[in-house]
Design a protein that fits this description.
The complex is a heterodimer. Chain A has helices spanning 32-41, 56-72, 86-93, 104-108, 112-120, 153-163, 184-191, 207-216, 227-230, 236-245, and strands at residues 5-13, 16-21, 25-30, 47-51, 77-80, 99-102, 125-134, 137-142, 147-152, 167-172, 198-201, 222-225. Chain A is an alpha/beta fold. In chain A, a hairpin with a 2-residue loop joins strand 1 and strand 2. In chain A, helix 1 runs parallel beside helix 2. Chain B is α/β, with parallel strands linked by helices. Helices cover 25% and strands 32% of the residues of chain B. Chain B contains 6 helices and 14 strands. In chain B, strand 13 and strand 14 (178-181) form a beta hairpin. Chain B is globular, with a radius of gyration of 15 Å. Classes of the chains: A alpha/beta, B alpha/beta. The interface between A and B is medium-sized, with 28 and 32 residues.
Chain lengths: 252, 205
């Protein structure tokens, strides 16, 4: 049976891992290569690397970090941040990324998903969406969660999947950093609308939040988190043992 | 030396890194001479069967590959590379494969329940059905990483492991010195590296 995936997310800036709480402040955690190896050795099913550098120098450092990680870590690696063209896909895929996650880049250039899927296959195109409730509607936000695009989220995600996105990372801005659980209502709306894997992101504060996620939304394929793993509040191995106890399919 | 066949399909950085990580000398090559010199050959691949088969046949690499296979050199096809070892593929049409293993490659949508997502993407466990040297280090029920919408359908004597995704799907195959894995050993953590290690230890005849 295919297992539910547990995915640590590493935000990388100037060659170091940082994590934004509600996207506002950042604190340095560790070396990306070391942290990636640690997670891989301790049960992570996949890793997400997010490049939050703005400068081209920073981008070069990120690419080098990525290459060094792919030389040492042998689990699937998704890379996002600053992906706005097919050239960006090429740049990270040639350094060892398996999947590429697009966020603002797809909003700015809606053809990007289709073009990338045609060139590299849907299995490596991930649509990452930051979503927040605005007047009772789910809105897509761009630019790291700062800008309300006014686009309705479920319709947007359906369109991206139709265009060739093979996986969805749904990040709820409403629950991100709050640590009181994933945004089940938002996740249900998305999981019931698409037939590609959906990764839940934003809000995990404890092991039980993952258990609730997989019990309440069996269609959800994976749970993603950052700081609770980085700061050792939740160990992936403990989490997976607990999932097994709860009869949630898990790789141990 | 291990030669990874480069016929213009997919990215080979991780695959090369995984062999380096287990201490193997490895080259990525599109030179037929390298296939002759190598101790073992890896046939990788991602994308669609027809497109990849056409690239492989027009690259001038299929003939040396087939002759090395007939000479008894260990060959490992990975993912689409495994699918290309078969006689035919039915992805967007009907295409000839290398015909090194009897059988064909068809959509998994024909055999799995409708509610399951396609592709199968993620970690699934192996059930060993026939002995194979590539599993000399592997434990029963080991998890490996899959990404596929198509699978090989062939006589059970060639199947060395299956995986269950609503139905038993071919996970790996062997026909003498020809080996194939549907999953990605280079993305399957230590379990995957062990499978590659075992492949590298197969005696070259």
């Amino acid at each position: 049976m295919i297992t539910k995936r547990i995915i640590p997310c590493l935000d990388v800036k100037n060659g170091r891992v940082v994590k934004g709480v509600n996207f506002r402040w950042l604190s340095d955690v560790s070396s990306p290569v070391e942290l990636a190896k640690f997670y891989s050795d301790n049960g992570a099913d996949e890793l997400v690397f997010y490049d939050i550098t703005a400068s081209s120098d920073g981008r070069k450092i990120f690419t080098e970090v990525l290459r060094e990680t792919a030389r040492n870590v042998f689990i699937p690696l998704t890379v996002g941040g600053g992906i706005s063209s097919v050239n960006d896909f090429e740049r990270v895929l040639s350094c060892g990324a398996d999947k590429v996650s697009v966020n603002t880049g797809a909003i700015m250039n809606p053809e990007l998903i289709h073009e990338a899927a045609k060139l590299y296959g849907s299995q490596c195109v991930v649509i990452s969406v930051d979503v927040k409730r605005v007047n009772g509607e789910f809105h897509v936000f761009s630019r790291g969660g700062r800008n309300d695009t006014g686009i309705e989220a479920v319709g947007w995600i359906k369109r991206c999947v139709h265009d060739g996105a093979g996986e969805v990372v749904l990040n709820s801005i409403d629950t991100d950093g709050v640590k009181k659980g994933f945004d089940l209502e938002m996740l249900k709306a998305v999981c019931n609308s698409v037939n590609v894997p959906v990764i839940a992101s934003g809000g995990a504060g404890s092991i039980e939040d993952f258990i609730t996620l997989f019990h309440e939304i069996p269609k959800c394929d994976a749970g993603l988190a950052a700081s609770i793993f980085h700061f050792g509040e939740v160990s992936i191995m403990d989490l997976k043992l607990r999932m097994k106890e709860e009869n949630i399919p898990v790789r141990l | 030396m291990i030669a990874i066949v480069n016929y213009g399909v997919g990215n080979l950085f991780s695959l090369k890194s995984s062999f380096s990580a287990i201490g193997q000398k490895v080259i990525i090559t599109s030179d037929p001479e390298d296939l002759k010199d190598a101790d073992r050959i890896i046939l990788p691949g991602v994308g669609a069967f027809g497109d990849a088969a056409e690239k492989l046949f027009s690259s001038g690499l299929s003939k040396p590959l087939i002759s090395e296979a007939r000479n008894g050199k260990p060959i490992l096809g990975i993912c689409l590379g495994m699918q290309l070892l078969f006689s035919k593929g039915y992805e967007f049409g009907e295409y000839d494969g290398l015909n090194l293993i009897p059988g064909d490659v068809r959509a998994i949508s024909g055999v799995i329940p409708k509610n399951l997502k396609i592709p199968q993407m993620g970690w699934n466990s192996l059930k060993f059905t026939n002995p194979s040297e590539i599993y000399s280090r592997s434990k029963k029920g080991s998890y490996v990483y899959f990404v596929h919408s198509y699978a090989a359908f062939c006589p059970s004597e060639y199947i060395t492991a299956t995986t269950n995704y609503g139905a038993d799907l071919t996970a790996s195959v062997q026909n003498g010195n020809i080996y194939g894995v549907q999953y990605h050993p280079e993305k399957s953590g230590n379990v995957g590296l062990d499978i590659l290690r075992s492949f590298c230890e197969i005696e070259v005849k």
